[in-house]
Amino acid sequence: MKRIYYVPGLISALLIPVLFWYYINPYIDNTKYNIVDIGIPAKLREDKSNDLYSFESVRNWDYKKIKVDPSKAKENSRFYVSEIKALQKRNQKDSGIEFILNNNNTYGDFVSLLNDMAIAKQETYALDLEKTGHLFATVNYIDPKAEKSKEMDCLLCNDVIDNFYEPTFSDKIYDFISWQYHKKNFENVSKLPKGAYYIIFGFLLFLNISMLSIKERFQIQRLRLL
Fold first, then answer.
1. Given this model, what pLDDT does residue 168 score?
2. From the CA atom positions of the chain, what is the Rg in Å?
3. Are the C-beta atoms of residues 40 and 129 closer than 8 Å to each other?
4. Transmembrane residues, as ranges (predicted)?
5. CA of 51: how far to CAs of 43, 59, 124, 142, in Å?
6. Which of 116, 123, 170, 217 is the most buried (most CB within 10 A)?
């Protein structure tokens, strides 16, 4: 039995993956990103109209001042966490902790303090970039009496009621044949990088050659049978 080698298919199977890797490689970003979660209050306007959203509204609170020694924040992490937890436990109105930073402190000191906030589960803290450059941990005051009465009066406050609709098979078929479904796909195609169009064009070209080859072979076989 004579072997038949499908040349267009072999070319497409070998060439298209190479083209895909060549054109997509510049868009692969191997950079590892780290996120720093920090709240920066709004800058105070001259007319002080946004005083409530700036740090000025809490600047004059009763803050316990803690100086952060340069390059020592990580070593003193346990102490800082204990101070933050003590602040939460005191639950004193209009109070907080002011972590004093200066130009000698490192980025590692700052990140270590943010980690301490996360370890202590401190919900409210902010960096005062406008004047001092210090990191402030503010108390999230909770009125014990109000909290108890709220728990008794509102038994369904934390419940969420929602209606869930599961689409049927006919709904899925309708979505597939609808113009909106394909319109979204065409919009996504327009956002592809330039190299992707070469890959698509190459695929369609080899597909066309393959279809013509198959048609030609069927015609040859038909003639032989006749």
1. 77
2. 33
3. yes
4. 5-24, 195-214
5. 9, 11, 18, 23
6. 116
- CATH of the domain spanning 51-153, picked from 1.10.3470, 3.40.50, 1.10.150, 3.30.110: 3.30.110
Instruction: Tokens for 217, please give them.
Output: 């072979």
Residue 161: the pLDDT is: 58
pLDDT at position 196 is 72
- 134 burial level (CB within 10 Å; 0-12, 13-18, 19+): buried
The answer to whether the beta carbons of residues 127 and 137 sit under 8 Å apart is no
Hey, what are 71's tokens? 């390059």
Cα dihedral sign, 80-85-90-94: positive
Stretch (H or E) spanning 137: strand 135-138
Q: What stretches in the chain show pLDDT beneath 50?
A: 1
Name the residue with tokens 């083209």.
19
> So where are the chain's domains?
7-28+179-225, 51-153
- For residues 72 and 109, the answer to whether their CB atoms sit within 8 Å is yes
Q: What angle do CA 181, 183, 185 make, to 5 degrees?
A: 75
Comparing C-alpha atoms, which of 40, 186, 214, 206 is closest to residue 110? 40
Strands 125-127 and 62-67: unpaired
pTM for the whole structure: 0.50
Confidence (pLDDT) at 155: 56
d(CA 110, CA 74): 9
